[in-house]
Amino acid sequence: MAKTKAKKVTPLMQQYNGIKAKYPDAMLLFRVGDFYETFGEDAIKASEVLGIVLTKRGNGSESETALAGFPHHSLNTYLPKLVKSGLRVAICDQLEDPKMTKKIVKRGVTELVTPGVSLNDEVLQSKTNNFLAAIHFGKKRLGVSFLDVSTGEFLVAHGDEAYIDKLLQNFSPSEILVQKQNKQRFLEAFTNDFHTFYLEDWVFQKDYGYDTLINHFKVQNLKGFGVEEITDGIIAAGAVMYYLSETQLNKIEHIQSIGRIAEDLYVWMDRFTVKNLELYGGNSVNSVCLLDIIDKTISPMGGRLLKRWLALPLKDLKPIQQRQEQVQFLIDNESFFDTVTYQLKQISDLERLISKVATGKVSPREVVLLKNSLKAIHPIKSAAESTKNATVKMIGSLLKDCNDLIEKISTTLFEDAPVNINKGNAISNGVSEELDELRSIANSGKEYLDNMLARETERTGIPSLKIAFNNVFGYYIEVRNTHKDKVPEDWIRKQTLVNAERYITEELKEYEAKILGAEDKIQSLEADLFIELIQYIVKDVQDVQSNAQLIAQLDCLLSFANLAKENDYVRPIVDNSTILEIKNGRHPVIEKQLPIGEEYVANDVVLNRENQQIIMITGPNMSGKSAILRQTALIVLLAQMGSYVPATEAKIGIVDKIFTRVGASDNISMGESTFMVEMNETASILNNISERSLVLLDEIGRGTSTYDGISIAWAITEYLHEHPSKAKTLFATHYHELNEMTTTFKRIKNFNVSVKELEDSIIFLRKLVAGGSNHSFGIHVAKLAGMPNVVIRKANKILKQLEESHTNKNVEDTLKDVQNNDMQMSFFQLDDPLLEDLREEILATDIDTLTPIEALMKLNEIKRMLVKK
Fold first, then answer.
1. Are 38 and 68 in contact (CB under 8 A)?
2. In whole angstroms, what is the distance from residue 191 CA to residue 111 CA?
3. Three-state SS for 678?
4. Nearest Cα to Cα of residue 652 among 315, 326, 310
5. Which of 3, 566, 657, 724 is 20 to 30 A from 264 via CA?
């Protein structure tokens, strides 16, 4: 039997294959000289994602393979693109100087960057957390953990699928770790929008997770963090910590604590509500979301915290009122407002800078930024401590001055320290005597060479001597051919040129060794001193993180104050009642999108559990029903975040859950119809309402036939009215039949969004007024949308007969009559109806745009109308 010929592999490719085998799920960037190369499938993928040229290595040989690469200094340009596309990237560097070995250069993976584990500024977004999440499917419930390596924030929670789904929506992790055996369960339970990575089953064990956490935090148990009982969350947190070690991230002293997302402290919103209210992103590409409007934060830390406050609105009265008082103080105290605003602009991303220090990935320039940021906190601390507001004063007292740290960095680093420690001139003068001496040697080189040149010129009598340097044989003396007979015997010839010769001397060689040795030593010594500085800073990680959190908090409150000042928001009265009263409420996003000069039409909304529990809002499409529903929810959310609200007055009894069922979010790809999705979401609302819930329903039942829709909408409204919770509800509908409910159910009130009818059109007034709307304006809206006139006329004709026969005929019979009348109109019926039709037909014809053929066809149509029997 013939032997199969073994494929020849070069030593370099052998080394590559060995390293790639350890990281089969990652793209391997393999450093070869001045390039990072990718091979095989990785190369094909890299060329697609990065748009770089795909070539071949060993073209035509047995070991031919795809190849794509880029210069090593372009790593910060290309790495983010790879990671943002969802790839895990293993960076394989040369671990020794190629000059120091005759064998193949030793290489190894120095960093594994994944969507959820990155400290690269180009990958991260400044005002957005970069969370790595893990989900554990427990026996009774699910556990989840979120870690942002770039800031050190570590959170755990547990709950049912709906709660975990909501958290994933709010925290929007860049990567989710899942147990391999639960891959299918995860895909069925959650949307497939996330980058996922599947870990071995043994990682998801309680003992492993618990031991990993107590070893990391150096504690006896987890009771001090308040997470001891969240077993499923601890298992998920253990998986996150395991993944960090797998990604070569072992220096993680900045992860100082772990906290619990306490479900009972925050307003409940499911993911449909978060999406429907467009809190973080609109439902179309260019739409503006609530966060875009309310984010006036200055610092990256503030931007990230504001996002968290929006995701988790408070339902405890005391902290809400505390935030309101602080916002009020900032609005009333202009000098303090101005001080904080100015100083915040001087503060860099403290959280991420100190995380880079802890992980050893910080540059000298970033350490200087850290120092300057800490210095910028001093005026804020002084101003806050001298105020009369208790909570602001407390923030001032909690801010650490970090004077020792500032002093240490100031004396160790030059203010204009470079981005890379290897560039030199990072460490200040006076830090190390040895460094100062070496610098003196390196810097006095020109003077030494000038003296030497003058001395040798005088000794030899050669007037045109030149001392220079090249990489081949270092420093040399160049003599033009006309004077070579004057060269002393102790000079050694090294190179002959056309017009000159080059020599070296013992003195030059000694000098060269001294200078080059000094430069090498300087680089090594600066690197060592920088590492010492980093180790010094690490002990202050907790103080810097604490400052960052307090500054973020102040930034968010300042953002609320700015928002209120710029947009005429008012401080709402938030209390423990169940009343919701909004006077002249406005939609915070829509009002900012209006054309210049157009004012937003404000509306009042009153809901309570005594006499106006359910408001039934009728009115045509496009009239603003949905806007009123959404603005009510957004005003409640803003109030419970501690912000002022867009209204002239507002009284808000704490809301614990907000439910919305707005529009049709089809899930056809999963085999569910619009109507099925609508019913699932509505069922979820009805099964979870409480006495403090706010329910917003928009056009429920429109996904089925008219009578089915009316019946379902009626039954849902009745259920909400009769339910012991008496949940406050806004119900927008185009079913005018539901107006009848107010006669039977005492806490249902009818309102309509008013319109002004003109002869053949309508004007939307967008004002909510008491009473139900008695007919639809759908045909007017169709006309505004540019529907062909023939369709509009037909629709009007059918509507007229439907309204006339509404009492004694069903819809099907009426439609048959309309059709028969149209078909059977005889020539002898030349009375008003036919003449009216002919008149309408002729008047509706635009003669100016009619072509000759269309004119003949129109004439033929009119003739047919007259002769039909």
1. yes
2. 30
3. helix
4. 315
5. 724
Q: What is the mean pLDDT of residues 146-163?
A: 94
- All residues at 6 or more sequence positions from 102 whose CB lies less than 8 Å from its CB, including other chains: none
d(CA 778, CA 784): 10
How far does CA 571 lie from the centroid of its chain?
29
Q: Specify whether the CB–CB gap between 175 and 132 falls below 8 A.
A: yes
Write the DSSP assignment of 447-487 as a string of letters: HHHHHHHHHHHHHH--TT-EEEEETTTEEEEEEEGGGGGG-
CB 602 within 8 A of CB 586: yes
The Cα 695–Cα 710 span in angstroms is 19
Name the phi and psi angles at 418, rounded to 5: -75, 170
576 φ, ψ to 5°? Answer: -90, 10
Distance CA 671, CA 87 (A): 30
pLDDT tens column, 576-614: 999 999 999 999 999 998 888 888 889 999 999 999 999
Q: Long-range pairs for 754-759 at CB < 8 Å and ≥24 separation?
A: 754/619, 755/619, 755/620, 755/623
Residue 528 has pLDDT above 60, yes or no: yes
Angle between helices 789-805 and 811-824 (to 10 degrees): 120
Instruction: Identify the weakest region by mean pLDDT among 395-399, 662-666, 669-673.
Output: 669-673
Share of the chain above pLDDT 70, in %: 86
Residue pair 739/748 in contact (Cβ under 8 Å)? The answer is no
Distance in angstroms (rounded) separating the CA atoms of residues 478 and 597:
79
**How far apart, in whole angstroms, are the C-alpha atoms of residue 698 and residue 686?**
15
Between CA 69 and CA 54 the distance in angstroms is 8
- ∠ CA 494-495-499, nearest 5°, is 140
Q: What percent of the chain has pLDDT over 90?
A: 52
Q: C-alpha 58: how far from its chain's center?
A: 43
CB contact at 8 A, 729 and 613: yes
* Helices and strands in the chain, H and E counts: 30, 27
Report d(CA 862, CA 685) in Å as an integer: 56
Which of residues 406 and 771 earns the better pLDDT score?
A: 406
Q: How many residues does the chain have?
A: 869
Instruction: Please name each of the domains of the chain with its CATH number.
Output: 11-113 (3.40.1170.10), 132-265 (3.30.420.110), 302-402+540-566 (1.10.1420.10), 433-518 (1.10.1420.10), 572-782 (3.40.50.300), 788-867 (no CATH)
Q: Per the structure block, which two tokens stand in for 425?
A: 């001139």
Mean predicted confidence (pLDDT) in 545-566: 96
How far is residue 89's CA from residue 78's CA, in Å, rounded to a whole number?
11
3-state secondary structure (DSSP) of residue 148: strand
Pairing type for strands 614-618 and 728-732 reads: parallel
Closest CA to 678 of 713, 626, 720: 713
When pLDDT is cut at 50, 70 and 90, the band that residue 254 belongs to is: very high
CB 237 within 8 A of CB 134: yes
Give dist(CA 698, CA 781) in Å, integer. Answer: 18
Contact (CB, 8 A) for 403 and 339? no
Question: How much is the pLDDT for 670?
Answer: 43
